[in-house]
Design a protein that fits this description.
Blueprint (H helix, E strand, L loop, with lengths): L14 H7 L2 H4 L3 H17 L5 H19 L12 H13 L12 H37 L4 E6 L2 E7 H26 L1 E2 L15 H7 L4 E2 L3 H6 L2 H27 L7 E2 L18 H24 L13 H25 L1 E2 L1 H9 L5 H10 L4 H18 L8 H7 L7 H4 L2 H6 L9 H17 L2
Parallel strand pairs: 3-4
Antiparallel strand pairs: 1-2, 5-6
The chain binds arginine.
Length: 460
């Protein structure tokens, strides 16, 4: 057992207690951040003459040595240490002796872990953002490719009106774009440095917190020493953003699963992104989409756990907060994995345009346009709705589409119908005429694509 706090104890910690308390098995992930934070701390202490320049250099060399050895595998982070902070400090003292014992001056593990987690989460916010950006690029490509790919639009999973694949994909583009905005907001709010808050009440050493914050790339120091060590809001915000990303991925996954069914056949998944069955030779299953949908629950779980961990904690630090790590790390790794795989799946998926267009024509998706035709010929919309309802009923009995009816048949229901109705309710017209901002008609779609391309260029 390697602990930092044996002085006031007369007995060894019970082994089970030690194991229960220890966090090294998971906070080992923070070794880089712990070392980075320590280098900034000691650099600041030298500037403030709390340690000498020589001591600073010895400590920094020692810390860099630990980093190199961990990265190249010659130094293992083993479970004999209580946590990553003990591991780094004990190793430092082993390497550099007396000077190493000064590193923890004016610092507590409370502000140390607070800065480690912030550095880690900050880096991951950017990593998730980069994956979202990659996905947006894939979606942009699909939008440009499929401005004229017709498909049915749905409400209640019932065919509603014809749309294009570009519009449907574009809906997800907007969602993931907002997800990036959320990450950006989180970054802006969280990018303040808690180091120097000490255990909870600052310290009597003349620390320059502005300087430490600057060294670590933060906008500045946090404003309240208690809040600095007690705040995990940014983690909750990040988990909420990850949950929303997963929710979006999960909805999209559900659609890929539906589109990939034998009944729909809108898409064919690439062999590299689907799996077979051990018993049914014909199977090609959308496992990636299903796993993304399934893993969404895991990320939501992390958010709920974290909210619950924090809800009853008196200020300032409490050991409960150590629970933030495993679930945050897991949620981040899960979401990142899902984003990468989902992107691969969607970018290799083949859209079966003919099947989609045929489906867009079936199911009376042009009924609204037939009613709009009558409105354009002076019929009030409510009456037009009733008339076309009768037209649809007629077609259902005859098992035909509206455009399959002869003009006589149409006129027998409403004499206002003329020969130009066929053009007015064709799939192409139904889509092309929808030109309101944000609608699927080509001109409207091209405008949105241009705006979003500009967004992608400006938001690296
Ligand atoms: N492993 C602890 C955590 O993750 C580090 C902080 C320990 N602080 C303390 N006062 N025991 O929260």
């Amino acid at each position: 057992m390697a602990q930092l706090w044996g002085g006031r104890f007369t007995k060894e910690t019970d082994q089970l207690v030690y194991n229960f308390n220890a966090s090294i098995s998971f906070d080992r992930k923070l070794y880089r951040e712990d070392i980075e934070g320590s280098i900034a701390h000691v650099t600041m202490m030298a500037k403030q003459k709390i340690v000498t320049e020589e001591e600073k250099q010895v400590i920094i060399d020692g810390l860099k040595g630990i980093l190199t050895d961990v990265e190249n595998g010659t130094l293992a982070i083993t479970e004999e240490y209580e946590d990553i902070h003990s591991f780094v400090e004990a190793n430092l003292i082993d390497r550099v002796g007396e000077a190493g014992k000064k590193l923890h001056t004016g610092r507590s593990r409370n502000d140390q872990v607070a800065v480690d987690m912030r550095l880690y989460v900050r880096k991951e916010v950017l990593a998730v953002d980069a994956l979202l950006k990659d996905l947006l690029k894939t979606l942009m490509k699909l939008m440009e490719e499929h401005i004229d790919t017709y498909m049915p639009g749905f409400t209640h999973l019932q065919k509603a009106q014809p749309i294009t694949l570009a519009l449907h994909i574009g809906a997800y583009f907007e969602m993931f774009k907002r997800d990036r905005l959320r990450l950006n907001d989180i970054y802006e709010r969280m990018n303040y440095c808690p180091l120097g808050a000490g255990a909870l009440a600052g310290t009597t050493y003349p620390l320059d917190r502005e300087y430490t914050a600057e060294l670590l790339g933060f906008y500045g120091p946090t404003q309240n020493s208690i809040d600095s060590v007690a705040d995990r809001d940014y983690i909750i915000e990040f988990l909420a953003a990850l949950s929303t990303i997963m929710m979006h991925l999960s909805r999209f996954s559900e659609e890929v699963i539906i589109w990939n069914t034998n009944e729909y056949q809108f898409v064919e998944l690439d062999d590299a992104y689907s799996t077979g069955s051990s018993i049914m030779p014909q199977k090609k299953n959308p496992d990636i989409a299903e796993l993304v949908r399934g893993k969404t629950g895991r990320v939501y779980g992390a958010l709920m756990s974290m909210l619950t961990v924090m809800k009853g904690l008196p200020l300032a630090y409490n050991k409960d907060m150590q629970e933030d790590k495993e679930l945050t790390f897991d949620a981040i790794d899960t979401a990142k994995g899902c984003l990468a795989l989902f992107n691969g799946m969607v970018s290799t998926m083949r859209f079966r345009k003919q099947v989609m267009a045929k489906s867009a024509k079936n199911g009376f998706t042009n009924a609204t346009d037939a009613a709009d035709y009558l409105v354009n010929h002076g019929v009030p919309f409510r009456d037009a709705h009733t008339i076309v309802g009768r037209v649809v009923l007629y077609c259902i009995e005859k098992q035909i589409a509206i455009e399959d009816m002869s003009l006589e048949e149409l006129k027998s229901i409403c004499p206002i119908f003329e020969a130009d109705v066929y053009d007015a309710i064709s799939l192409k017209t139904c889509v092309d005429k929808r030109l309101t901002a944000g609608a699927p008609g080509r001109e409207a779609m091209e405008k949105v694509i241009a705006l979003n391309k500009k967004y992608l260029e400006e938001n690296e």
